[in-house]
Amino acid sequence: MATDKERMLRGDLYRGNDPELVAERRACHALTARYNDTEPDAETERQEILGKLLGACGAGTVIMPPFRCDYGYPTRIGSNTFLNYDTVILDCAPVTIGNDVAIGPRAQILTPLHPMEDHELRRAGWESAAPITIGDNTWLGGGVIVCAGVTIGENSVIGAGSVVTRDIPSRVFAAGNPCRVIRDL
Questions:
Q1: Could you read off the pLDDT of 21-33 as tens digits, one per residue?
Q2: Among the listed residues 81, 94, 73, the one whose alpha carbon sits nearest the alpha carbon of residue 150
Q3: Taking a C-beta distance cutoff of 8 angstroms, is the pair 133, 112 a contact?
Q4: Helix axis angle, 19-36 to 43-53, nearest 10°
Q5: DSSP letter for each residue of 24-59
Q6: pLDDT tens figures, 69-80
Q7: What pLDDT was estimated at residue 120?
């Protein structure tokens, strides 16, 4: 029988209160607390923490504290990417952020899903997650929310405050709630 962690990572229903997952979240939160408490000139220390925290973090990538995530290891960030203050990544499924991406302050990248139709499953604490992919050279404005299962194509721009509920193609400007394509770039 699969563990809750295995079910979580493959997108099946799992229980977030599983002791292994709780321990992993606590370890992640300890690392993010250390990261967020670093001095402004402590770039080397922050890079060392990110190396322990994330699945991958490319050269030249900067994440401004405070930063929050659930597990860390499912998140892979490319090179020369910038995450501004207060970025939240709920990474219960893989999160892939490409190279040269700019993410504005208070952005949220949210992989968890909760049963909508089955109220008893939701009450019992069951959930699932779906991966998120953000392509190279994409810019997410401040306060953007990217929902579970979404892929944003390369070279696209998402307007500030948008809620991205479905895939966005490459080379477009998209905005709104729900986010929709406004024009080609």
A1: 999 999 999 999 9
A2: 94
A3: no
A4: 170
A5: HHHHHHHHHHHHHTS-TT-HHHHHHHHHHHSSEE-T
A6: 999 999 999 999
A7: 94
DSSP H helices in 110-165 = 119-123
CB 154 within 8 A of CB 98: yes
Other Cβ atoms closer than 10 A to 169: 15
Reported as half-sphere exposure (CB side, CA atoms, 13 A), residue 5 has a value of 11
Instruction: Output the pTM of the full model.
Output: 0.96
Structure tokens at 142: 């401040």
Q: Which residues of 50-72 are buried (b: 16+ CB within 10 A; e: fewer)?
A: beebbeebbeebebbbebbbbbb
Active-site positions read: 114
From the list 99, 71, 65, 68, the residue with the least C-alpha distance to 85 is: 65
DSSP, res 19: H
Residue 122 CB neighbours (<10 A): 13
Task: Report the C-alpha gap between 116 and 85 in whole angstroms.
Answer: 32
β pairing state of 151-152 and 112-113:
unpaired
CA 60 to chain centre: 19
State the chain's mean pLDDT as an integer. Answer: 97
